Input
Amino acid sequence: MSEKRVAPASGPTTPPRDVARLLTCVVARELRDGEVVAFGLNAELLLAAALLAQRLHAPNLRIRHGLRIERGHELSPSAWTEERASRSHEVIEYLEAHDAILDVANRSSPMRFCDVFFVGGMQIDREGSANLIGIRGKDGRMTIRGPGSIGTTSIGTLARHVILFSDEHTTRRLVETVDYVSVPGWRRRAAAGLEGGPSLCVTPLAVLDFADGRMRLRSVHAHATEEDVRRRTGFPLPPGPVRTTPPPTPAEVEALSVVDPKGRLDRVDLCRDGGPR
Amino acid sequence: MSEKRVAPASGPTTPPRDVARLLTCVVARELRDGEVVAFGLNAELLLAAALLAQRLHAPNLRIRHGLRIERGHELSPSAWTEERASRSHEVIEYLEAHDAILDVANRSSPMRFCDVFFVGGMQIDREGSANLIGIRGKDGRMTIRGPGSIGTTSIGTLARHVILFSDEHTTRRLVETVDYVSVPGWRRRAAAGLEGGPSLCVTPLAVLDFADGRMRLRSVHAHATEEDVRRRTGFPLPPGPVRTTPPPTPAEVEALSVVDPKGRLDRVDLCRDGGPR
Amino acid sequence: MTARGERVASLAESAALVRDDMIVGLSGFSYQNPPMAIVREIARRGVKNLTLVSGPTSGLETDLLIGAGCVRRVVTAGVVFERVAAVAPAFRRAAERGDLDVWECDECIWHLALKAAAWGMPHVLWRGGVGTSLPELNSDLKEVMEEGRRYLKVPPVQPDVVFLHAAEADPFGNVRVAREAYLGRTFSESALALACRGPVVATVERIVTNAEVAVSPERTIVRGALVVETPWGAHPGGVSGRYVPDLAHYREYAAAGEASLRGDPVPYRRYLESHVYGTEGHDAYRRSIGAERLDALRTSRA
Amino acid sequence: MTARGERVASLAESAALVRDDMIVGLSGFSYQNPPMAIVREIARRGVKNLTLVSGPTSGLETDLLIGAGCVRRVVTAGVVFERVAAVAPAFRRAAERGDLDVWECDECIWHLALKAAAWGMPHVLWRGGVGTSLPELNSDLKEVMEEGRRYLKVPPVQPDVVFLHAAEADPFGNVRVAREAYLGRTFSESALALACRGPVVATVERIVTNAEVAVSPERTIVRGALVVETPWGAHPGGVSGRYVPDLAHYREYAAAGEASLRGDPVPYRRYLESHVYGTEGHDAYRRSIGAERLDALRTSRA
Output
């Protein structure tokens, strides 16, 4: 398997929703039983992944969706939505007010905010730092203003495991060094006296992990090519044999149909081709 | 009135409950409209005073009884009680958990913990410091252990107005200088950069206030004598004419019967004669 | 027995509490509960150089005041319209032109700054955010070493006045959320009110009796507020448990703002003209949106 | 779908989590919700040199462990039996003999020390308590100047293990209060659990289903606890909304403790013998108190 070249199967035969489902499986496989997983952005896909993990191998996974921990069987509408229906899941926990987020910072407490946290950004760099603040122009000043670091910085610094998630795979997103740091990667964490670093970076084309604090290619999705992935990454990825991301198993496919009976994953915004060059 | 000598009316003609009612009126007169009043100990008497003030001149007085703000018409059982009945008052506010007491420290917020706070102690001194910690022996070590500062220190330091309340009037209670400070009085506050100090000290025999940061006699209750009060106070009180504490007015008597229809004030523990010499 | 005093105010007198250079706290987490009616009133008064403390992640209430030229500085973890605009347009434009100072923070640090104010602390030390760009971007948020570890030294942020929008209040200033409120019990309404050094104003969908409020004290989130009955006062934002955000209106606003970013200021000026300056008050605004469109936004109680 | 894991434990295995020299958090505000059954179990095991973090104002759970010789240090704002004993007797005796270190604090400072632990802060600065004896009495609670003002520098206090008693829990460790709980929603149970570095154990009157707990998430105060079904587990203390404290029992205990203070150790030894060492476990304790007496303490649901 490790010697097999990735097939250049990027034709219209792979509909976009299949990418969303593949990424859902990729993320689900990373979640372990007994953990608390938290996310803010990309909520549909990540919630689907967590629900999938709960059904398949992590029955005690707790899912913090916004400020709530819920237990449900189906993918629900995301946090901010025009849908009027109150969500059907059992709420098993919520923070009384948003500032209670501070109270759950102790990661050895059974009431910790999370173990695994998902982070995205305008830029993600080679060591796994993420930037939601802005882009510098040639003069060093901020020429493109980003949204702001929202809920990422503190949780991303304090969580036990950070997984980076990107809805595009482009050289503007995956850069050598971020212009500003909302969440620190491996080297910056070490310099600040923090252990570890992000474990994974999931994109519509590939799964990347880290060795010695630098990103490397773990697998390329079946609809992409290794060559394209390397060309679309803004820094060199170490050479070496690359496997194809394992496609959804029959058990995963079946569980996905339970988790997402209404096909919400079909509407998830992802750049299936990696996004603009 | 100011020239009138206090009558030595300390015979059995003044039943103990009348002292409790007198003190209730004395305290009620100090409470102003729009304030938040808080107390922990001596809850029956102070709650009765607050309810009385609400009926008579302070309709917007808010009463924080333990961690709750309630609105009722009748004196309820105190915080820790064998009485099984849930208290009948409307709870209009409560702190979600005890640690929310920290959140209400900002005294300019409309949600501040209190404006007026009542403090007692094993010792109260001339400048109005209170001690709930312990009593020193001749060797300077703590030979009598007190209960601890419970809820008094921070609130007593940060509240706008502190009123001292003592259920006895003895030289062991009212001392020149407290052995330990749970709540600081005038000089200690000034030294720590805090403005003001306690405004009043109410005992079963007298009402004392402060001039230049030292206690003085404001009025003596009708059932006590000025001489006895001076003798029972562990530091000199400035000389000068002393008035009799105004007895309950007809309006106060009538309102008291509404506030305390079951005669709970009759059971309040107070040393009517000032307590042991 | 003397009557209790009511704390009911008008939109105009509430907006008049805001003067140039003030630090103004605004409720509103993303699309939920922005005090838009009072924001439009403040914009009409043309105050200048405000510092807004909003969020922790904020939305239109912040962006509109920036677009109307009232704001010099924002203290917020982000200004976004999720799924409509990754970055709110007036915020983006003002920040990129250097017309706006941004206190760069995340949601936890935003809350810590308010906590420090509420608790009367000169600073709080926090591990979250070491190794990031925040100390580089904020002159008053430095990294310090303490007992061999690095911390961010977070200063207090204290609003001079706070405006929030909620479902209900009684006339005595007890403000409460709908029973069906979305996530947790509240967002940052109480955090802002607890930190504030001055008045707290709540615009509410409906004033209810004190008796109604007293039966469910757990729904009361702020006390002692000045209360303004302002139905649809969060529009185009949503009110948890009452109505959903009007995302079509957000898209219209975002398109106008994005035209400005591309150099065409006309659509944004037109937006302000028709929804802010050109409407004389909140009633006129509601009429301009239309009852039918508003009614279609109601949350079903099913 | 794989089954969720339960977190149900026994009293004995829970008490075995405590080893000499540990920092042990105990619930119990005055008479309410002390985890007495586990306290008696810990006393029977004869551990030594514990630091108790209890309260903020604590009662019998603290006094009994002191009287049983298990405690070297207490972190509490007071140990009192209101209306029964101004100062709890074993606490008083041990402190006066110099056998006990007391971290002198008040309720706010107690909470701040737990917050500092929960939030991962090296200290917090607090205005409440400047000008008092606390800095003189605690070597690690000093006054400092910061920007021209004096503050107490409050260090973190982090329990190694926490025990609490509550009305109910589900088998998955979701612990909740009775609907009729007394003041506020909870006391310090969640503050202790949030600060803890190790396991949190909840003894509860009754284990209920997860379905029951999930319908009222607002009543859940602690999550992820080990759960031990222990009816009457707070006796002689009360459980908010379930039963009132047995003040006659407190008076008996206080009289025995006060005899010790006067130099007669026999009544207190006899108390420990009959209620702690002489009963083999919690069931034996309940039988020794008697069902009739216990039933008479139930809170009416009227």
Observations:
- Chain D has two domains: 11-103+158-295, 122-155.
- The mean pLDDT of chain D is 94.
- The first helix of chain D runs from residue 11 to 15.
- Chain D touches chain A through 31 residues (CB under 8 Å).
